[in-house]
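[Meeting: bench + compute handoff]

Bench side (C.D.) handed over the final construct sequence. Compute side (W.E.) agreed to return the predicted structure before the next meeting so the bench team could plan truncations. Sequence as handed over:
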Amino acid sequence: MREDGLQWAWSKGLISGVDAYSKHPILVIHTGTWNRFAPGPDFRNACIRIGEITWFGDVEIHVKSSDWVKHRHQTDPKYRNVILHVVAENDKPLVFNEELIPTLVVEAQVISNLTYWNKKDEYLLPCKFGQHTFSTDFIDSFWRMRMVRKHHESSSEKEIASYILKQNSTVNVHKRNARQRQLVTLEAALIRLRNTTTFQRHNPLFSELKTLKDEFTEHLTAFESQSILINGVIPTLWNLQDEAELCAFAKTIPPEKNKIISQFKHILPVAKNAYETQALLEINRQLCSTNKCLTCEVGRKILSS
């Protein structure tokens, strides 16, 4: 359980219940403004009704109620207007001005959904419980994000692509994968490919890329062809003007197979092409590996269910 997960659930109106002390129901009229960056309570200017009394003030959220003391809020004047303490575990009653601070203990079902976020497994994602889907816009945004990033980064695949496309006159090939052939054999194949390629940047790009893909197939192994096209050619040629054609071309390349992609097969339909696997790799890089489930479509669906 993480505090910002509880904050997100409160902001979405997913938390309700009764006051742990008076046992009166708590009606959330307004969750307040999420105070993400400034010192002070987590939500400012909230409005709640406890029993027959309507309260206006701030809401503080903790995993444990004892975190209030741990964080020294009891001596901080910014917390004098707190009207409700929202916690996952009420391990210490809080007294302010000789009165118990109203406390809402989050329901077990909400906690159960939120704890998906923290579950780890070597081969499975935190959202491994059930089948999900990503929207087309979500996949497209992360594919584009990956292409922009790779366009500005250096890589051996981009160096090879620049050589084949005759942007560079030399290339240094390094063995990076067990599926890669001996360097002498690969270098000879790249030289033949460079000398025979008919790629012309000014022609319709999608048609030229399909021809280039066929030429790759003649001279390179399936793994080499896939890797250089995905990680070298497309990022090298990337620009917003040609995005639609580059996207369409990525969809003609078979999907990648690796440990990261295998994790997604437990929760998503099988990826159909390299466009989808590249997007999934970037989602994993930007969100999954850093537990940013609250900014992920699947994470939000789970926590809202």
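W.E. noted at the follow-up: The chain has two domains: 3-118, 136-291. C.D. will use this when planning the next construct.
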